[in-house]
Design brief:
The chain contains eight helices and 13 strands. The protein is an alpha+beta fold. The strands form three sheets. A five-stranded antiparallel sheet has the order 1-6-5-8-3. Strands 2-9-4-7 form a four-stranded antiparallel sheet. It is elongated, with a radius of gyration of 18 Å. About 30% of the residues are buried. It holds the Pfam family cNMP_binding.
Length: about 240
């Protein structure tokens, strides 16, 4: 997948419907030029190297971060140390909710999985802008509603689908949203380790390794060094109906 198409992508998460988590315009896109400048005027640009946390679970919230470039992973860490990936977010999205104006503690962590450029918008200043401009307030509400739909879809999948169904659904989602058709094959343009996939579906790396090997033996996928190629999308679709 090209860099330009990734910039228009919504993110990567577990969801039962592609339409539910379709691409979302940037938080700034619906705003007029004057409101866009007002939002950016309160911002502070930061560059995050790979592996740098935007914040950690339990840190106090103080605002949101607009993603300009790169990829941010949001995840929850259980007391046991096990992690569940909530989503990977790309340029155009923000991280830092649900408390947009920053008064409570973060209930999950966010980390840069590749070099990323973000713009920090402090909560008190953002709240003041929302009170002054209805268009800014509505844009924030729309973005927050989109995040709520994403996390609701994830909760529904975790609560109602088997782990096998969740893995197949994730592969279907990745192929349709991030896949590139190359002949009869669909190449998913973002590399994933077995651990990445396991964290997205609430499973273990060992289980995912076994399942991918079985699907590869059946000619459904090909997996090599993080690159997933879908050879038989229909087989995956039939198993998630």
């Amino acid at each position: 997948m090209s860099a330009s198409s990734l910039r228009n992508a919504t993110g990567i998460m577990l969801a039962g419907s592609d339409a539910l988590v379709g691409s979302l315009p940037s938080l700034l896109d619906p705003l007029c030029e004057a409101d866009r400048r007002r939002v950016l005027a309160i911002g502070r640009e930061e560059v995050l190297p790979t592996g740098k946390h935007v914040w950690r679970q339990g840190d106090l919230q103080n605002g949101i971060y607009l993603i300009e470039e790169g990829r941010i992973r949001s995840y929850y860490a259980a007391p046991s140390g096990r992690e569940v990936t909530l989503a990977y977010w790309f340029a155009g999205n923000f991280v830092g909710g649900p408390d947009l104006f920053g008064t409570g503690a973060h209930v999950w962590s966010s980390v840069a999985v590749e070099r990323s450029r973000v713009t920090f918008l402090p909560g008190p200043a953002l709240r003041a802008l929302a009170l002054q401009s209805a268009s800014i307030a509505v844009a924030l509400l729309d973005a927050l509603a989109f995040k709520a739909r994403c996390y609701s879809a994830m909760a529904q999948m975790l609560g109602t689908r088997s782990v096998t169904e969740r893995l197949h659904r994730l592969l279907v989602f990745l192929s349709k949203i991030y896949g590139s058709q190359q002949g009869r094959e669909i190449v998913i343009g973002i590399p994933f380790t077995h651990g990445d996939l396991a964290n997205l579906i609430g499973s273990t790396r060992q289980w995912v390794t076994v399942q991918l090997s079985r699907m590869q033996a059946r000619g459904v996928i090909r997996y090599h060094r993080g690159l997933i190629v879908i050879l038989n999308l229909r087989a995956l679709d039939l198993e998630v109906v």
